[in-house]
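Pilot study result, target chain (253 residues):
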Amino acid sequence: MSHGVFGGIELREESLRRLSFFLKIEEIQLISLVSLSRALNAEWFLDIGANVGFYSLVMGKYSRHVRGLAFEPTPETYKQLRDNLSSSSLASRFSAINAAVSGARGSLQFYDFGDCSGRNGVVSTSIHRRDGVKSVIDVPAVTLDEVCSHLVDRRCVLKIDTEGHEAEVIRGGRKFLRDNTCIVQIEAGHGNGGGAIDSELSGLMYSPLFEIGPDRYYSNCQDYFQSEVRLDLLERALKDTLKFRWNQDMEVW
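Predicted structure:
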């Protein structure tokens, strides 16, 4: 591939068909998160609601020492995620996990919208109407505290995009979020769940950094609590985005 941040990344044909739509709505957020990861010198990336793995693939391309976990519960979408990661140089650093991340371990009913997999989500918290649902399936659920119990005092970046289930993801990862220094990108501007997310993260000593579209960025790194530092982070992220408009590439770290 030759398109910007995905240059040199191999994608399965079905994933390629989704790429142009993805870039229309999330290119700035994706590049911004990579830029923030570099500023934090992140060690781990957690891709929660990974879909076919666009975030993980780009994060791994530009952050060669970062290890990652990509969570995707829908079976068909998970297969594409797994294939995309295994066909890349990330196979030794990134793992795909076929499960939803939630507030408790167990099983959840899940909407599968087929090719519109960006709308897939937990039935009880979905922000989407049932129109267009291909099927309702049962998927396994895990918590961050369970899966990431080995991560303590690490520098971690999280992308949480679970179509309305974000607050539950946080509730199941309170210990993890307290025990590590993190930057969190969370899709919170799509409905009424933003208040619950703010409350949960505030209770864990996370402060908002800035917003880009429906995505909000938070951190518990005290270095980022000052307004001038947050502004500097945003400027760096937007400069990296503009580089691609000028056919330049980001620094690999």
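One observation from the pilot: The two ends are 21 Å apart (CA to CA). A full batch analysis is planned for the follow-on phase.
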